[in-house]
């Protein structure tokens, strides 16, 4: 993705390349008149209803973030306003990997799926769309406490370690979102995809860190309530953008629970309405629970369990040793002794870093086939190597030019000639380089080379383990291809219907007042008898003009649609009520 393909700003300029690959141009001109009508209907309904049940930050945030009720937001216009809040927004390609989504948040960037739901999915869609992202997520970040939580969640969440099952579920949900919004997808294909997701959700095995933190994200950022159990308010974007579920969640059918770290263990089904929701007393409490959860992660605990999580994930990850040395790669095997790791091995390209900066000469070219090293203390010596002063190292003959045989606790032996050592800024040794080196474990050779140099990591223990590389520049992380989909509606025969939507839109905005709304309605009634949204827009204009006959004709027509399609009854009734309410404001 070239930055020239989207409108950049100082916040977006700081994004690393691997995140920029998910950004795509918004192509505002691709939004059709029906897309605009869908946005307007949802926003008018939401603002009317949510002003009563949403946290006060929602209504205030709509104004602060420049979200219009009548028009789909333009990303450029949003960014001009968001920059005053220290944030930015970008259009992305639908669902993106959870870790990438959260990493965007860590950079104070909202990711907004630029597509918009189809009219038939106006009440709810599992696919990320601009209604969910723009009208749901954006307004609440105007609250400073919540914005801080969102950013912190991104920083911690993008380090969560996933499992192979997580990726399989992500791919399945992404597939469902695509086919559900694609025109003409057979119902049986959607049902098959939903059942596949249900199967995966029921067979995830031991939940990963990413599964837990995804749950926390769902029950706060997406479906969170705030206040008291008796009188909760909505702040979650999923509820703010769903005209159906925002009403449903306020009924006694949905159990309200006090928010706690237990929410991390509560899974969810993206294809169904939520049977329970969690209520936080305030936004600050969200950060408290997040930090409590972070204390359970390998990011802060490290150790044998953290290393094992990275091995099980089969994804690029990093361990940090007690010296601050960071090893990044795909961790393959480990050797443990008395509950502690004493040796680790990566497979394929690996790199070493210190304080998130790659060490000179320790890149993926140097470690193209992997990196392995013992960790821990030397056998029979109380002081760990990392705590040895230059005099201590010389006394134990761990010194340049010496041929040594180092026995580690647990049976690892390293034999070879020391060439040099690498120290951190505090002067502690973090790496020792050997030649003619042999590494064994209880007589079994782990590494042997005469000409190739061997770099031994120094560290008594693993203090941190997390997803992704220490230095983002060490690895080629560009693996995403943008879809070629467009907002343009290419269904046969629809262009005429779109033109009528545009006529009514232009009339409402004062761009074309020389049209007969009655004639437009009659054409819709005859040619598109199942369309209900445009008749509601015409009804609204007729009510505003104090017409008598046309509104009654439209209401009669809509009653016929409700009889033939009962599932549209609530949507139609709400639309008619909104038109009436507007005349009273």
Automatic annotation (TrEMBL):
Listed cofactors: Fe(2+)
Sorted UniProt keywords: Iron, Metal-binding, Monooxygenase, Oxidoreductase
UniProt GO MF annotations: iron ion binding; oxidoreductase activity, acting on paired donors, with incorporation or reduction of molecular oxygen, reduced pteridine as one donor, and incorporation of one atom of oxygen
Coiled-coil features, chain-numbered ranges: none
Record's signal peptide: none
Family: Belongs to the biopterin-dependent aromatic amino acid hydroxylase family.
SUPFAM superfamilies (UniProt xref): Aromatic aminoacid monoxygenases, catalytic and oligomerization domains (SSF56534)
Superkingdom in the source lineage: Bacteria
Pfam families linked: Biopterin_H
Stored InterPro entries: ArAA_hydroxylase, ArAA_hydroxylase_sf, Aro-AA_hydroxylase_C_sf, Aromatic-AA_hydroxylase_C
Any one GO biological process: aromatic amino acid metabolic process
Sequence positions that bind Fe cation: 132, 137, 222
The protein's name in its UniProt record: Phenylalanine-4-hydroxylase
All copies of domain Biopterin-dependent aromatic amino acid hydroxylase family profile, residue ranges: 1-343
């Amino acid at each position: 993705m070239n930055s020239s393909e989207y409108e950049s700003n100082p916040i977006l300029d700081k994004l690393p390349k691997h995140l920029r690959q998910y950004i795509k141009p918004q192509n505002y001109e691709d939004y059709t008149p029906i897309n605009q009508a869908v946005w307007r209907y949802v926003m008018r309904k939401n603002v009317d209803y949510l002003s009563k049940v949403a946290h006060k930050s929602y209504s205030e945030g709509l104004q602060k973030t420049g979200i219009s009720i009548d028009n789909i937001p333009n990303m450029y216009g949003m960014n001009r306003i968001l920059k005053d809040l220290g944030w930015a927004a970008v259009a992305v390609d639908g669902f993106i990997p959870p870790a990438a989504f959260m990493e965007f948040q860590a950079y104070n960037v909202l990711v907004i799926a630029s597509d918009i739901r189809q009219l038939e999915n106006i009440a709810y869609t599992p696919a990320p769309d601009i209604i969910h992202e723009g009208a749901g997520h954006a307004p609440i970040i105007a609250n400073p406490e919540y914005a801080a939580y969102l950013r912190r969640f991104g920083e911690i969440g993008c380090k969560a370690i996933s499992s192979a099952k997580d990726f399989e579920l992500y791919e399945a949900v992404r597939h469902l979102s695509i086919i559900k919004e694609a025109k003409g997808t057979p119902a049986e294909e959607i049902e098959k995809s939903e059942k596949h997701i249900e199967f995966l959700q029921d067979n995830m095995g031991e939940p990963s860190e990413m599964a837990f933190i995804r749950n926390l994200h769902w029950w706060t950022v997406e479906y969170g309530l705030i206040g008291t159990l008796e009188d909760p308010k909505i702040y979650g974007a999923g509820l703010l953008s769903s005209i159906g579920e925002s009403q449903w969640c306020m009924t006694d059918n949905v159990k309200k629970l006090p928010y706690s770290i237990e929410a991390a263990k509560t899974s969810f089904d993206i294809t169904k309405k939520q049977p329970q929701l969690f209520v936080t007393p305030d936004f600050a409490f969200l950060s408290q629970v997040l930090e409590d959860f972070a204390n359970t992660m390998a990011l802060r605990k490290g150790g044998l369990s953290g290393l094992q999580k990275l091995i099980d994930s089969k994804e690029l990850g990093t361990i940090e040793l007690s010296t601050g040395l960071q090893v990044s790669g795909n961790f393959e095997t480990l050797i443990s002794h008395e509950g502690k790791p004493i040796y680790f091995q990566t497979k394929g390209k690996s790199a070493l870093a210190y304080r998130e900066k790659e060490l000179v000469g320790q890149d993926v070219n140097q470690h193209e086939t992997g990196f392995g090293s013992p960790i821990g203390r030397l056998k029979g010596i109380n002081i760990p190597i990392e705590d040895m002063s230059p005099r201590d190292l010389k006394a134990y003959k761990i010194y340049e030019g010496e041929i040594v045989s180092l026995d580690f606790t647990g049976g690892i032996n390293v034999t070879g000639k020391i060439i040099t050592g690498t120290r951190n800024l505090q002067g502690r040794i973090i790496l020792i380089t050997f030649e003619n080196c042999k590494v064994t474990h209880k007589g079994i050779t782990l590494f042997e080379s005469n000409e190739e140099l061997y770099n031994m990591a120094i560290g008594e223990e693993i203090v941190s383990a997390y997803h992704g590389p220490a230095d983002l520049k060490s690895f080629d992380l560009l693996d995403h291809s943008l879809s070629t989909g467009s907002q343009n509606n290419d269904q046969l025969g629809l262009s005429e219907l779109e033109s009528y939507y545009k006529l009514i839109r232009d009339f409402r905005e004062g761009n074309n007042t020389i049209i007969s709304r009655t004639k437009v309605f009659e054409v819709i009634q005859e040619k598109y008898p199942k369309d209900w949204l445009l008749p509601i827009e015409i009804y609204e204009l007729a009510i505003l003009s104090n017409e008598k006959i046309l509104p009654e004709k439209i209401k009669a027509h809509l009653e016929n649609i409700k009889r033939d399609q009962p599932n549209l009854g609530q949507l139609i009734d709400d639309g008619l009520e909104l038109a009436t309410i507007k005349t009273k404001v």
